[in-house]
Design goal:
There is one protein chain. By secondary structure, the protein is of the alpha/beta class. It folds into 2 domains: about 5-185, Thiamin diphosphate (ThDP)-binding fold, Pyr/PP domains (Rossmann fold); about 200-325, Rossmann fold. Helices cover about 35% and strands about 20% of the residues. It contains 13 helices and 14 strands. It has helices at about 10-20, 45-50, 60-75, 95-100, 105, 135-140, 155-165, 180, 215-225, 245-255, 270-280, 305-310, 315-325; strands at about 5, 25-30, 55, 80-85, 115-120, 145-150, 170-175, 185, 200, 205-210, 235, 240, 260-265, 290-295. The strands form 3 sheets. It has a 7-stranded mixed β-sheet with strand order 3-2-4-5-7-6-12, with helices on both faces. Helix 1 (about 10-20) runs parallel beside helix 7. The longest helix has 15 residues, at about 10-20.
Length: about 325
């Protein structure tokens, strides 16, 4: 299979382009997605190709255009609504949580809501406390919504194409630091990636590291450093939170006997807690040490780069967590 190297943003844009060409019911809407090409350049060139009827610049009103997107989806269209900074997804909780997520169930399947909401996540850009948060765990808590957290250009394209063929609402979180900085091979051929199927990024026998979105990259780097110490870490990327691939995670932990869960979202009541609970319930008898969790520090994310990076998991913190797991093994 032939490939090209794309950035994360280019992979998103290519998926949108291909799906807009495939399905005339798909359209993109959001702040500055049209003539400007999006603040992170993920829709660049699409306005010129598809026109203002399908690449729609909206007012600065997330409540308004997400409500419009839900209504359009109910009528049979498939809107792709972009939340420029994922922090402002807080403004559309009613539209997504109480409306989009519930319609299919409340109508006995007579009404579907094929809606894809793209939202950014993550810190590391000195954007301040209101532009650096990661709210993916909130939506994974809501039945009726599917939550996707890609970590590579290959995943981003394949999972977004799957979302745009999905009859249910999908919240697609993209870590904004990866748009330009993360590059990788993407096949020339058509492909999709199924929801609910984790990827084992690296095999190992001593400890399981579960990380998602941008956190997969420092986790893989930590695993390489640990290998120099003779520690073989298995690294798993869930790729989607709902559905979550329970079995791949549990089978790995049953093999290694130890687990570290890494996420950029806040640690308390978040993704790390849920995955740790899954492991405790499904692989408790195989654990040789307590599960370690690494999430964002439970403080508003600082503007100062020095303070901001102190709140986010990195290679050093991941390695230290692995050492705690190995030191805590039962004799």
């Amino acid at each position: 299979m032939s490939t090209r190297e794309l950035t994360f943003a280019q992979a998103i844009r290519e998926a949108l382009d291909e799906e807009l060409s495939r399905d005339p019911n798909i359209f993109v809407m959001g702040e500055d997605v049209g003539a400007w090409g999006g603040v992170f350049r993920t829709t660049e060139g699409l306005y010129e190709k598809y026109g203002p009827d399908r690449i729609i610049d909206t007012p600065l009103s997330e409540e308004g255009f997400i409500g419009l997107a839900v209504g359009a989806a109910i009528t049979g269209m498939h809107p792709v609504a972009e939340i420029m900074f994922g922090d402002f997804i807080t403004l559309v909780m009613d539209q997504l949580v109480n409306q989009a997520a519930k319609m299919r169930y409340m109508t006995g399947g007579q009404m579907q809501v094929p809606l894809t909401v793209r939202a950014t996540m993550g810190g590391g850009r000195s954007s301040g406390a209101q532009h650096s948060q990661s709210w993916h765990a909130w939506f994974a808590h809501v039945p009726g919504l599917k939550v996707v957290v890609p970590s590579t250009p290959y995943y981003a394209k394949g999972l977004l194409k799957t979302a745009l063929r999905e009859p249910n609402p999908v919240i697609f979180f993209e870590d904004k630091v990866m748009y330009a900085k993360v590059k990788g091979p993407v096949p020339d051929e058509e492909y999709t990636i199924p929801f609910g199927k984790a990827d084992v990024k690296r095999t190992g026998s001593d400890v399981t590291l579960i990380a998602l979105s941008r956190m997969i990259h420092p986790t893989l780097a930590a695993a390489e450093m640990l290998e120099k110490e003779g520690i073989q870490a298995e690294v798993i990327d869930p790729r989607t939170l709902t559905p979550l691939d329970d079995e791949t995670i549990l089978n790995s932990v049953r093999k290694t006997g130890g687990a570290v869960v890494v996420d950029e979202g806040y640690q308390r009541f978040g993704v790390t807690a849920e995955i740790a609970a899954l492991i405790a319930h499904g692989a408790f008898d195989y654990l040789d040490a307590p599960i370690e969790r690494l999430g964002a520090m439970d403080v508003p994310i600082p503007f100062s780069p020095v303070l901001e990076f102190a709140t986010i998991p990195d290679e050093e913190k991941i390695i230290a967590a692995v050492h705690r797991v190995l030191a805590g093994r039962r004799p």
